TrEMBL record:
This is Putative membrane protein insertion efficiency factor. Could be involved in insertion of integral membrane proteins into the membrane. It comes from the Bacteria. Coiled coil: none annotated. It is found in: Cell membrane. It is a peripheral membrane protein.
Length: 91
């Protein structure tokens, strides 16, 4: 199931995503995030994390660096974002 879901997201990235304007507010992109979440947490939990990330990605959010966390959560990985900003000497 995990491999099937990853192939579906990769198909989206190759076939559908190039036809749409770039609009993801986060790094890594939402599709890459979903693939990483599925690989790290399995098909069901990874899919839930990916869907939560897609719902968070809208024009009214600041965005930024948001990698997949080591534990299951539907919320943003604020700790990794703060560490990244500190390492880049950003506010």
């Amino acid at each position: 199931m995990r491999n099937l879901m990853i192939k579906m997201v990769m198909g989206y990235k190759k076939l559908i995503s190039p036809l749409l304007p770039a609009s993801c507010r986060y790094y890594p992109t939402c599709s890459t995030y979903m693939i990483d979440a599925i690989r790290k947490h399995g098909a069901l939990l990874g899919f839930i994390m990916g869907c939560a990330r897609i719902l968070r990605c809208h024009p009214f959010i600041k965005g930024g660096y948001d990698p997949v966390s080591d534990h299951f959560t539907i919320f943003r990985n604020k700790r990794a974002s703060k560490e990244y900003r500190r390492s880049m000497n950003l506010k």
